[in-house]
Write a structure and sequence with these properties.
Blueprint (H helix, E strand, L loop, with lengths): L1 H9 L3 H23 L2 H18 L9 H35 L9 H10 L2 H11 L5 H8 L3 H18 L6
Helix pairs in contact: 1-2, 2-3, 2-4, 3-4, 6-8, 7-8
């Protein structure tokens, strides 16, 4: 039955694709949940797996079972999530260390610092992270973000001010 649905889906039949994905949804959720031990992560990875399946449906060549192909996509998606989480954890640790050694006194819990950082607009958070996490100079950040050096300095300064206010540590 899968092979008929797959062929129809590959031919552009959206109903067949939806039926195919619905049929395999709980299978993928259970697999990722068993693999990760994290229910929410299982749902997130499954969602991304299904999105990738939609994009790559024409790359399935019936050489293996469809479920095997889905497991392969889910496994790679899960590993990508883990890599991203490891990078995020390293960023968190680097920022925690950076701010704990900075002249800015963050007396709040690190979780609050992280939350405040993620509340910043991209235009302020990105230069701030590039400066204080990666250690880039203002000129390099200007090239990366395609804005003037003075704008980068202003955005880093403003981002730090917003963090201070959010954390209620502004000494002014």
């Amino acid at each position: 039955m899968d092979s008929d649905l797959i062929r129809r889906a590959q031919a552009g039949d959206e109903q067949a694709l939806a039926e195919l994905l619905k049929k395999h949804y709980s299978f993928i959720v259970k697999y990722v949940w068993k693999m990760s031990g994290d229910e929410q992560l299982a749902y997130d990875v499954t969602q991304d797996t299904l999105m990738k399946t939609i994009k790559k449906i024409n790359q399935f060549h019936h050489r293996s079972k469809f479920s095997t192909w889905l497991i392969q996509i889910a496994t790679h998606t899960y590993l990508d999530y883990k890599r991203k989480q490891n990078k995020k954890d390293k960023l968190d640790e680097k920022l925690r260390n950076e701010f704990s050694h900075s002249p800015v006194s963050f007396s709040n819990d690190w979780h609050e610092v992280q939350e405040a950082l993620w509340k910043l607009e991209d235009e302020h958070r990105i230069p701030l992270v590039l400066k204080h996490y990666y250690g880039y100079d203002y000129k390099d950040i200007a090239k990366m973000t395609k804005v003037k050096v003075g704008t980068v300095k202003s955005r880093v300064h403003y981002g730090l001010e917003k963090l201070r206010k959010e954390l209620k540590t502004d000494d002014r």
